[in-house]
Amino acid sequence: MSSSSAVQSNLSGQITEKLSRTNYVMWRTQITPQLRGAGLFGYVDGTMPEPTRLLVSKDKDGKESSEPNPLHPIWVKEDQQVLGYLLNNLTKEVLITVTAVTTAHALWTTLAGMFSSQSLSRVNNIRTALINAQKGTQSGLADDLAAAGKPIQDDELISYLLHGLDMDYQPLVSALDARVTPVSLDELYTMLSYFDRRV
């Protein structure tokens, strides 16, 4: 089997979501194992750089000569297949922004640059929403943070949950404040459920 058909068969795995303007972290999470599993991640992270086009050598008299590097066309072919795989997993709205990109590494770097500031802004917006959230909406926001690449720790989520409770839950909050050992997230959900049934 030729190396190019090996690349195609190694990248046959499907991902569930093409890259859009809002799902970069989830897309990267799906696409990275496909590339790593195929042994092709080096094309996107730059650890498999493009070999020189020509091999230069000197004879015993010091005269230089050059000949085509046989590794160069193989690298170009495989890089273009990786690039094609990535492009096939972009939505049209993202694809039109990267039409001038010609290598897999350049595409990977461009996409990371495009979406890193957007991801940071989204994380900040979700955190603000968490601070202002009412009971019942925090766990969905925590899932959004995880999808944006910034999972929230359980103790932090517990603080947001307790902060979002209204005055009806004051007896429960006071009891939790008096505890010596911190409450786990599962325990808190159980206590809230039990409290809701009693009230």
TrEMBL record:
- Name the Pfam families on file: Retrotran_gag_2
> Which domain of life does the UniProt lineage start with?
Eukaryota
**Name this polypeptide is given:** Uncharacterized protein
Source species, please? Aegilops tauschii subsp. strangulata
Q: What is the lineage of its organism?
A: Eukaryota, Viridiplantae, Streptophyta, Embryophyta, Tracheophyta
